[in-house]
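Design a sequence for this backbone.
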């Protein structure tokens, strides 16, 4: 596996370094530390910060390749991921608000939208990955996300929660709602959702992530949610 960790040398990237190190060390991944200086004046302090961050990675048994680029951050990340194929890109971000399209920075959103590899956005302070949440509509297009998350979770001995959220249907579908609220019945059913969730469960087990189901929690809002916990 190849992991790209992006840094501008600012404190907001420290969580990205810690989480990237945790994953890369467990996965024995080939790791690149990409430093991006937006101006010439930023380059010297950036190199100093990258040296410190590389030492942190060394502490996890990782010897990163260090690349320093200058220019607009999104363009530099796009260029790097175009030249080299990465399995995961890790970036740091600052929390900008609880609501709205850009609850993370606009730059973060542009990176997620533009590049091909999956992106792990590290916001706030966290040094370990213990639980993953996969939001599934029960369709087949989520399979790659389940497989990839399972690989990461197995590597760091984390749990995975599959969260299925169903928009509230008309009353005529009340039987379907009751079925989805009963996890055991849903998984034993021949419905498309039940079939797909069983397959996702088996895939997690194949990857070494033990699977069980939490039937006690319900989340209500615009619809009804049935959290399926894999631990």
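Sequence:
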């Amino acid at each position: 596996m190849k992991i790209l960790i992006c840094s501008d040398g600012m404190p907001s990237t420290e969580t990205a370094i810690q989480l990237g190190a945790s994953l890369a060390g467990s996965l024995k991944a080939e790791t690149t530390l990409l430093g991006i200086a937006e101006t010439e004046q930023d380059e010297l302090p950036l190199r100093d910060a990258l040296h410190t961050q590389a030492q942190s990675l060394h502490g996890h048994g990782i010897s990163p390749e260090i690349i320093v680029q200058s220019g607009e951050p999104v363009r530099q990340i796009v260029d790097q991921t175009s030249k080299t194929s990465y399995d995961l890109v890790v970036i740091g971000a600052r929390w900008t608000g609880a609501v709205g399209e850009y609850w993370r920075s606009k730059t973060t959103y542009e990176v997620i939208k533009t590049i091909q590899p999956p992106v792990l956005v590290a916001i706030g302070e966290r040094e370990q990955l213990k639980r993953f949440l996969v939001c599934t509509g029960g369709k087949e297009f989520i399979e790659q996300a389940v497989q990839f998350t399972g690989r990461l979770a197995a590597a760091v001995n984390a749990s995975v929660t599959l969260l299925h959220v169903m928009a509230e249907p008309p009353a005529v579908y009340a039987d379907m709602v009751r079925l989805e609220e009963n996890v055991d019945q849903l998984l034993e059913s021949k419905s498309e959702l039940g079939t797909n969730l069983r397959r996702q469960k088996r895939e997690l087990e194949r990857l070494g992530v033990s699977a069980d189901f939490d039937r006690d929690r319900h989340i209500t809002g615009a619809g009804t949610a049935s959290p399926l916990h894999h631990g």
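DSSP finds eight helices and nine strands in the chain.
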